[in-house]
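COURSE: Structural Biology Practicum
ASSIGNMENT: Worksheet 4, Part C
STUDENT ID: 0417
INSTRUCTIONS: Below are two proteins. For each, the amino acid sequence is given first, followed by its structure token string. Answer the questions at the end about the second protein only.

PROTEIN I
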Amino acid sequence: MTLKVGDKLTPFVISPVTRESMREWAVFLHDPNPIHLDAEVVKAKGLGDREINQGPTNVAYIINMLHNNFPGGVIESLDSRFLDNVYADDTAEAFGAVTEAVAAGDRVRVTCDIGLRVAARGDVISGTAVILAPAN
């Protein structure tokens, strides 16, 4: 695997984030919080006018992007900061760029700036990830 600082990773796009997926994730995560299931609750709390996607789901989009870009790799660390919400019907794009790539035997340790952005609103998650990937 030949990587250079500044290389962009192939994005992982979710278009759109659906209410159905939020209902499924609510079951999977054991998270019955009504902000994920009922737009009227979101409105009543002053958080917007659409259901809010679960935070762990948003991070999962980033993890999918990393796994797609580094097949056979292992995520050693992932640090993220939540900046905004992802709402039902948003298009979300997980993205990344290489900031460091260091040979580690038959592997390469790759550090990336990562994030999740929503069309029309910008970045909703920012962070870094370290992946130990096969060298070939």
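PROTEIN II
(use this one for the questions)
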Amino acid sequence: MTRALTEIESLSGDMRRSAGQGDWEAVEAALTARDGLVRELLAGPRAPDHADDLRRLLEQDGEILAMARKARDAVAAELRQLDDGRKAVHAYGGQNRQSRRTIANSANSANPARSVNSLHPTKA
């Protein structure tokens, strides 16, 4: 096994561990490093000799992709909940403001003598 293939396997293991911990920046960094090594290995004269090893490593990436999808879905669900909460607060706040206006208008129209100005009499 070549040094490059050993490093590629090590980086793949790092990617799986980082994905399991939710450290997606570390996954991306290891992926970038690993991709450079894979390109280097494939450009070499013995690339066909490593096809099965690389295929196996790429199949293992499916595990990382599954973790990434699960994390993405969890973030999307959390964003939906936050958006629903924001909408609820906005709707409640809008109804609450309207209710105060309606109450104030109702109070003034029910008792015309008691207007806003009568609540703050001026000193004569």
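ANSWER KEY EXCERPT:
Q1: The chain has four helices and no strands.
Q2: The radius of gyration is 32 Å.
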